[in-house]
Amino acid sequence: MFYTPQDGHGLPHNPFGAIVAPRPIGWISSRGADGADNLAPYSFFNAVAYVPPQVMFASTSTKPDRGDTKDSMANIRETGVFCVNIVEYAARDVMNASSGAHPREVDEFAKAGAAKAGCETIDCARVANAPASLECRLTQIVQLPGAANFVAFGEVTGFHLRDDCIVDGRFDVTRFNPLSRLGYRDYTVVREVFELARPDD
């Protein structure tokens, strides 16, 4: 089949998220200017550069109490910092519980039962027992076509790696099994890895 966004796909559900998959999940923690903490997962997330290390995530919807965006993006506009927490399979239910559209004053760490710890290089909370957390300073927010589509880019200023995930000097994802987003309500988990040598190696 072929379709254009203008004409629609004619399927019961939008296939776009299932096509671009799996997607890593950035479990974004942020803090507003009022000191209120927020925690929410975003699957439009990825690393984008090595030197300096940089990441991005996109927010694509709104909340009535946040105007043109959601809590994470609104907080980052105010404070210029955020933390990306990596989601392990064991935390899937906690991550999912933090995805609700709660009022801005609700602390999703407490609501979802996620243990909280402080960051080292920025004034922000992080998920205490995450396999990895990336402390980030905002470099820019880009508005994409569409009323609520914003992308935040951040430079990573500090890395937290859980000790049990480091094996023989490498960060071993099989020790925690990262959760990834598919389409619809579907997720997947990384349990196996393999290597491919590049032609010029």
Automatic annotation (TrEMBL):
Residues 18-173 form the Flavin reductase like domain. It holds the Pfam family Flavin_Reduct. GO terms for molecular function: FMN binding; oxidoreductase activity, acting on the CH-NH group of donors, NAD or NADP as acceptor. InterPro entries: Flavin_Rdtase-like_dom (IPR002563), Split_barrel_FMN-bd (IPR012349). SUPFAM superfamilies: FMN-binding split barrel. This is Flavin reductase. It comes from Meridianimarinicoccus roseus.
